[in-house]
Structure formats: C-alpha cells, structure tokens
Amino acid sequence: MTLSGMLLTGCGQAVSQSPSTGKAGVAAQPAGSIENCGRTMTFTSVPERIVAMTPGQSELLVKLGAADKVAAEAQTKGRELLPELKERGDVKQLSDQMPPSREVLLGANPDFVYSPTAYEFTAEQGFASIEQLKDAGAESYIATAGCMARRSKAEVSDILTDIENIGAIVGAGSNTSAVRTEAAEVLSSVEKAVDGKDKPTVVELFVEGNSVAAIGAGIEYDMIKTAGGNNLFSPSDEAFAKFFSAMISPETLVEKNPEVIVFTTLDKAHEATTRTFLKEKFPEVAAVKNDRLVAISSDDVMPGTWGNLRAVEQIAKGLHPDAF
Q1: Which residues pair with 28 in a beta bridge?
Q2: Domain 196-323 carries which CATH code?
Q3: 205 pairs with which residues across the strands?
Q4: pLDDT in tens, 4-42
Q5: I need a surface site. Which of 6, 63, 254, 264 has the fewest CB within 10 A?
Q6: What is the pTM of this model?
Q7: What is the full DSSP assignment across 117-143?
Q8: Can you tell me the distance from the alpha carbon of 68 to that of 172, in angstroms, rounded to the nearest whole number?
Q9: Dihedral sign from CA coordinates of 145, 235, 184, 205
C-alpha cells in the first residue's frame, strides 16, 4: 500500500437497536437504526454475506462470533485468512494492497461491508461507492475513527462504539457486551500502568523511501496519549489542521529530537528498512541513539479493529517498559 493509501483515514456514531441474542439457536434480531458518519442505516435483517475491508475488520467480526457471516475480506497484504475463516474453505480474499475494484466487490455479492475508513468507498478511485453498494442491496459501515469528519479528533476508545454497533448489526447478542468489556479493560489496564509516569517525548512516523510523514492528530495521536507519551506534533499545529498526517523534513525531525520514535510498518521487510533508514539518516536523534524505536503494524492502526488495542499496549510498553 502506498503512503497516501495507508494514511487515508478519518463523525461519531451511535446505535439504537432491538434486543439481540443470536446464541444457542435463537434467531438473532435485526439491529434497527444505526447512526454512522452522519448517515442513518436501518437493518430489517441480520447480514449473511459480509465483506471485511481489512483482515482487522475480519478479526473483530470473528471475535464477535460472526465468522460464519464473513464472505470475503480485502486489502490482505499477503496475510492468510484467520483460522476461523480458513477452515470454512469458502471465504475469498478480494485484493492485496488496495481496496477491491467496484466490479470485484460487487461480484462478491455482499449484503454488508465493514470498512476502516471512507477511502475504501471512493468512486473516483474505481471503488464501489456507498450509494452503489446500497443500490446493490448492501449497507456499508465506516469505523468511527475513520469517518472523515472525525479524522483529526478520533480516539482509541472509538473502538467501543464500533463493537456495540457491529455487534448489533451481526446479531452478536450478549457476546457484544463481553467483547466491549474486554476492550475497555485493555484500555483501563494501560491507563493505570502509565498513570503518574513521566511522559517521554514521542513522534510517530511512516517512512516510504526517503519520504517521512509524521502523525499529529487522529487515532494514532490518541494512541500515544493513551500510552503515556507526549507527542511533539499536535492537532493544533497548522500542518495537521486539515489532515492528521503531514510530510516533514529531515531538519524538523532533528530539531524535535524525540526520546522515542513510533513508526508504522507494512511488513517485516518494511520494518527492517525503516530501522536502517532512521539509524543511517538520524544517528544523533535521541530516540535513534538510544535505540528507542517502537514498530507497530499498519494493520493495527486501521480504525475499527482489535489491533487498535494491541497497538496501544505495544506503544505503552515501548514508552514505559518498567511499568509492565
């Protein structure tokens, strides 16, 4: 995935639902009305053919007990299907690095599409729009932190809203509450571990070739805050007023001189390349000099995924190793 594709991520949302059990042979009830990114969706039945637009979306669906409803996933970046999906033998992988084309997605005949951001529905890029999917009989849900109107103020806790909404949509019943409680406990555990600790200065980067982008807003910014770090870039900075990420010069990174660098990776090879790049280009930056480089998977910063919680834990351990 290119830098622009990886960074295109976000509208809060809420659910008004009918009671849903969906367990022990009891028919799951439709979710009713769901507010998502300024849209109201009405579900009169539980979806049976879901397309997860990243493996992270698949993971959350599986965790909610909806593995049997996942028909396909996209943007796999070479990842294998989760065991719960692979064992079925009929779940398709629609695309590798980019969202599937309009024809490919519609060809999967979904009745529900779960996406991390609005980018996956950009018709100008050749992807199926929300309206086109609606015309084909499929509703589309964008993760709360991926809504365009929320991209600069998203929070890690937005995943709790997504768990409630997706749980209602797929008829997860009481499992929704259990998964939400587990997620809330992860965040609470991290916050307690770092409470009162001195906050190291941090920058979060994505390196592509010789280009360096910094994160100054959005869900990744909140991850650092939740993990007990002091991000040297901020939503109040002019560079991040309209978008949560911006290209920075080598001089800017040297001037900021962070104690810790968090960087997102596409795969192990990209992680190794980024580490080498930082060590060769910025040997005098404190984070590099002291080898305080924390790599997190780009999958785990995609909104609406369980990976958001893994990333917070990983960052917190990198910032405060003595607290864990």
Answers
A1: none
A2: 3.40.50.1980
A3: 214, 263
A4: 444 443 333 444 333 334 444 445 777 788 999 999 999
A5: 254
A6: 0.88
A7: SSGGG-GGGTPPPHHHHHHTT-EEEE-
A8: 12
A9: positive
Helix (H) or strand (E) holding 30: none
- Cα–Cα–Cα angle for 75, 80, 84, rounded to 5 degrees: 110
Query: What digits encode the pLDDT tens for the residues 74-126?
Result: 999 989 999 999 999 999 999 999 999 999 999 999 999 999 999 999 999 99
38-61 pLDDT per residue, tens: 999 999 999 999 999 999 999 999
Indicate the residue type of 213: A
Inter-residue contact 74 to 105 (CB < 8 Å): yes
Q: What's the N-to-C CA distance of the chain in angstroms? A: 33
* CATH fold match for the domains 3-187 and 196-323: yes
CATH ID of 3-187, from 2.30.30.100, 1.10.760.10, 3.40.50.1980, 1.20.1270.50: 3.40.50.1980
Residue 283 tokens, joined = 């040997």
- Neighbour order of strands in the sheet with 50-52: 92-93, 70-73, 50-52, 112-115, 139-142
- Rounded Cα distance, 61 and 52, in Å: 8
Token pair for 237: 């900075």
Going from the C-alpha of 168 to that of each of 13, 50, 222, the distances in angstroms are 13, 14, 26
